[in-house]
Design brief:
mainly alpha, three-stranded antiparallel β-sheet, 3 strands, 2% strand, disordered N terminus
C-alpha cells in the first residue's frame, strides 16, 4: 500500500466568506451525516478485509473535510450531493494545501493522489449503494472533474511492470503467506529466539549463535540472511544488545491481510539482500547485478532458461556482453592466459548465480521446475518490491535514473535477452 495512504492532509479553511461560526456548524453537520454512513462505507471499502477497515476510516476524514468545504456555498443542510461547479472550484486549492503540508515534492504528489483516489471511492460508494442525491448528469460531471485531476497527477496509482501479470488465487495467496519456506524458517527462528538473545553491536549473530541458528534452518548462510531480513522487516526488534520478537511476529504466518503483508515484507527483504550483496567489481557484486536482471525478466514474464544461467562459462555460450560482466577483473592476467581467466571468472559467476537461484527457490521465491527461472505467481509482488528496493537504494535522482540503472545492469549482463 502506498505510504501516502497513511498520511492525512492538514485541515484547511474554505476560501469563502463563510463565517467561522457557520463553518463550524456546517462541519459538525457533515461529520454527523458521514458518521452515520461509516459502518456501511467501511464494509463497502474493505470488502470484508479487517486490515483495510482502518484505512477506510482514515479516508472518511478526508471526505469530511472536503465535503464541508464544498458545501460551504450551498444553501440548506449538507447532503449526499456534490455540486460539480463547487467541486471543480474547490478541489485545486484543496490539493494545493495538501501538497503544502507534505515533506517533499514526491510525497506531495502521493498525498494528492491519495485525496483524489479517496474522493473517487466516496463517489463510487454513493453511486453503487444508491445514496447519491443529485442527478445522473451531476454525478457524471463530478466524476469527470475527479478523473481530470487524477490524470493531471499521472493517475491515482502508478503503472507497474506487474500490470497484466497473472494474479494468485485466494488459495495460492493464503498458502504463500502461511506456508512459504521462508515464512516457516522465520517462524522457526522466532521459536529459537525465545524471550530474547544477545546480539553483536550491529544486530548480527555471533559465530556461536549463527551456528545454532544455522542448525535450525539448514545452513549458517541462510540463517544470516534470514536474520538480517527479519530485523529489517521488524519481525525481530533490537533493544540495545538484545534481540526480541518484534511487532510483525503477531501476524507472520497468518492468512489474513496483515499476515500476507508481513510475509511480503519479509520476502522482499530477502530478495533485496540477495540483489545488494557485495560491491561492484567483486564476484558477489557481479552476481547480485546479474541476479537482479534475471529476476527482473522473471517478474516481467520474460524468464531466462536455467540453461542460459548454467552455461555462462561455456566457450562461446555467454553472449556478446561477457566483457561488461568481467569489468573489474584482472584483464592483464586474462590476456596472458589467452582468455582463460575470463572463462574461469564466468564459470565462477555462473556457479554463484545458480547457488543464489537455488537458495531463493528453496525459500519459495523462485521456481525453476519447468527449466525457466520464473517467480511463483503468489510471490510476484514480493520479488518485484525487492528489485525496486534495490533500485531505490542504489540510485539517486528518481524513477528515470532508476530505469536507466536497470537498463545498464541488464546490458552488462552476460545473459542475452530471451527470445519473444
Amino acid at each position: 500500500m502506498p505510504k501516502s495512504r497513511t498520511r492525512k492532509p492538514k485541515n484547511t479553511r474554505p476560501r469563502t466568506a463563510t463565517s467561522p461560526g457557520e463553518y463550524e456548524r456546517r462541519r459538525r453537520t457533515v461529520d454527523l451525516m458521514i458518521d452515520g454512513l461509516t459502518p456501511d462505507y467501511i464494509a463497502w471499502a474493505s470488502r470484508g478485509e479487517d486490515d483495510l477497515s482502518a484505512f477506510a476510516t482514515g479516508q472518511l476524514l478526508v471526505v469530511k473535510m472536503f465535503v464541508t468545504i464544498v458545501s460551504s456555498l450551498g444553501r440548506g443542510a449538507p447532503s449526499l450531493r456534490l455540486d460539480p461547479d463547487h467541486v471543480a472550484g474547490f478541489l485545486p486549492p484543496f490539493l494545493e494545501d495538501v501538497a503544502a503540508a507534505a515533506a517533499n515534492d514526491d510525497d506531495a504528489v502521493d498525498d494528492q493522489r491519495y485525496v483524489v483516489g479517496t474522493l473517487v471511492d466516496w463517489l463510487s460508494f454513493l453511486e453503487e449503494t444508491g445514496r447519491w442525491e443529485g442527478t445522473q448528469e451531476e454525478l457524471e460531471a463530478v466524476a469527470e472533474v475527479l478523473d481530470s485531476e487524477a490524470e493531471s497527477l499521472g493517475g491515482i496509482v502508478d503503472s507497474s511492470p506487474l500490470d497484466g501479470a497473472p494474479e494468485p488465487t485466494e488459495e495460492e495467496a493464503a498458502e504463500f503467506a502461511a506456508h512459504a519456506p521462508f515464512v516457516r524458517h522465520a517462524l522457526a527462528l522466532l521459536e529459537w529466539l525465545g524471550e530474547g538473545r544477545e546480539v553483536m553491536p550491529d544486530g548480527g549473530l555471533d559465530a556461536d549463535a549463527l551456528a545454532s541458528a544455522g542448525a535450525v534452518v539448514g545452513s549458517q548462510e541462510r540463517a544470516r540472511r534470514l536474520w538480517e531480513a527479519m530485523v529489517n522487516a521488524e519481525v525481530v526488534e533490537l533493544d540495545g544488545s538484545v534481540a526480541r520478537a518484534g511487532e510483525g511476529r503477531v501476524d507472520l504466518g497468518g492468512t489474513d491481510g496483515l499476515g500476507r503483508l508481513e510475509a511480503q515484507f519479509l520476502g522482499t527483504e530477502i530478495v533485496a539482500a540477495a540483489c545488494t550483496d557485495g560491491t561492484p567489481g567483486t564476484l558477489e557484486g557481479e552476481t547480485a547485478a546479474v541476479l537482479t536482471a534475471v529476476l527482473n525478466a522473471a517478474v516481467r514474464q520474460e524468464p531466462f532458461t536455467l540453461e542460459d544461467v548454467a552455461s555462462l562459462g561455456d566457450t562461446g555460450g555467454a553472449g556478446a556482453d561477457d566483457e561488461a560482466v568481467a569489468d573489474g577483473a584482472d584483464t592483464a592476467a586474462a590476456a596472458d592466459a589467452g582468455g582463460s581467466g575470463l572463462e574461469e571468472e564466468l564459470k565462477g559467476l555462473a556457479e554463484q548465480l545458480l547457488a543464489e537461484i537455488r537458495e531463493l527457490e528453496a525459500l519459495g521465491l523462485v521456481d525453476t521446475s519447468d527449466g525457466m527461472v520464473a517467480v511463483p505467481v503468489a510471490a510476484l509482488d514480493t520479488v518485484f518490491e525487492g528489485i525496486r528496493d534495490y533500485d531505490d537504494e542504489d540510485v539517486e535522482g528518481g524513477e528515470a535514473d532508476a530505469d536507466a540503472s536497470r537498463e545498464d545492469r541488464e546490458e552488462a549482463s552476460v545473459l542475452e535477452e530471451p527470445e519473444a
